[in-house]
Amino acid sequence: MRRIVSSPALLVAAVAAYALLRLTEVLTASPFIDYDSDQYARVAAHPLWSHGFLAGEKPFVLPLLWKLLPGPAVHVSPNLVYGDIRPALLAQVVVSIVCWTVLALVVARSLRHFGARVLAVAAILGFSCSMGITQWDHTLISESLSLSLLALLLAAALVLMQRPSGVTVAAALGAMFLWTFTRDTNAFYVLIGGPLLALVLARRGWMRLALPLAVGALLIVGASRSTASIADRGGLPTRNVMVFALASDPQFERFFVDHGMPNQPGLAQRLGQRPPNLYFTDPRLVQFRRWFARSGERTYYEWLATHPGKLFGPPLRSFGRLYTPKPSELAVYRDYQPLPRVLPAWVDPFFFPGSSAGLAALLALAVAGFAFAVAGRRVTRLDAVPLAFLAATLPVAILIWHGDSVELDRHLFQGTALTRLSLLVLVLLAADRVLEWAYERGRVPVGLQPKGETA
């Protein structure tokens, strides 16, 4: 069995230092609470097996975590009164520490060379210490937990590709389930990535494992979309999009009026009222509410399907934003107070490149490394994991672009992190292959040569 470092005690000390840094960072700042926090808290207030919990106004994994804790909110109808929410923040950071450590160790143990394994642990843990990840530690919404479960999913998928078995398929499906039911949009990454991984297994002769993986992934996605539909979780995002489209695109308005939407002056302004629950009480929207409940979302999807220029044009013209959200749009979640940094500001971009130039550099390294693997016939099943999820990022980003016009950059951020993390894994796999190639030719320093193959 491969050792990750020369001394297990050194590895334990490194992980302990990492955990201490993450915990200290979250304990020294105040939490961020917004409208979504109230929604998650209302779901958490429902009984575990109730309709309001399993198919509530938000997915249930974050509320499930809260149910295990003393808080974070007490439901007092019709309002929420927040008590001590520190346990909730600590819990999501502990989950983050565990998940990112698991991913770091799994990636490291996938590599042959000692130097590459040390690099993998440092790179993955450094990635999780970047402001792109840690800024969500202070928010009482689903981003932090979702990013952590993304790391766990990639770890489970890598183990599945290394050691295909019924147990590893079940573990991968379990991680997909948790990640999918943390944020609704995660289902679309699973919809694409899950079957692609199953296809790789099938092509390598593991059809008995590929079939349950593909079917399981599709069932998870189906269950997620069903609960979202039952709870009408897509209603508000769709209405947000309609507000902007009605105000700026006469063609959009004509299409919807032709499909039964009431033609009312000032409709866009009334749909854009805040807080959003005014939509349900405004007497001027009675006719629109009836139409929207019956045909609204379906009509919107028909509009996109019959207007491919509108479907692909706007997001592709803003291609950079799909992968590099505007810093100013994300700043609201961290600039409400001076947040502590785990990494110095000048180090942070090396682990999580926030600019388009930094992302392009990471992409170039990943492409060069994969080309090296292809040329040297060193591609393995492990490459399928980052590639499968990378393949999902653009289609899902386009769906998110059209899914909600409010807080777009936050909604795109899971794909932003997934893109960078997948490219990072490809770079680490490439680094291991370069060292292997150099070692075969006797060009690797002794300290970087393969070793520690036995426990």
List the helices and strands and how they pair.
Layout: H1 8-27, H2 35-44, H3 51-54, H4 61-67, E1 73-76, E2 79-82, H5 86-109, H6 114-128, H7 131-134, H8 143-162, H9 166-180, H10 186-203, H11 207-230, H12 235-248, H13 250-258, H14 267-271, H15 286-306, H16 308-317, H17 319-323, H18 327-330, H19 348-351, H20 356-375, H21 384-403, H22 408-440
Antiparallel strand pairs: 1-2
Helix pairs in contact: 1-5, 2-4, 5-6, 5-8, 6-22, 8-9, 9-11, 10-11, 10-21, 16-21, 20-22, 21-22
Query: Helix and strand string, N-terminal first?
Result: HHHHEEHHHHHHHHHHHHHHHHHH
For the secondary structure, the number of strands is 2
Query: Average pLDDT across residues?
Result: 89
Total domain modules: 1
Shape, principal axes of CA atoms: globular
Poorly predicted regions are 451-455
Roughly what percent helix? 55-70%
First-residue to last-residue Cα separation:
5 Å
Structural class: mainly alpha
Oligomer: single chain
The fraction of residues assigned to DSSP E strands is: under 5%
Major sheet attributes: 2 strands, antiparallel
Strand line-up across the major sheet: 1-2
Helix count, DSSP H or I runs of 4 or more residues: 22
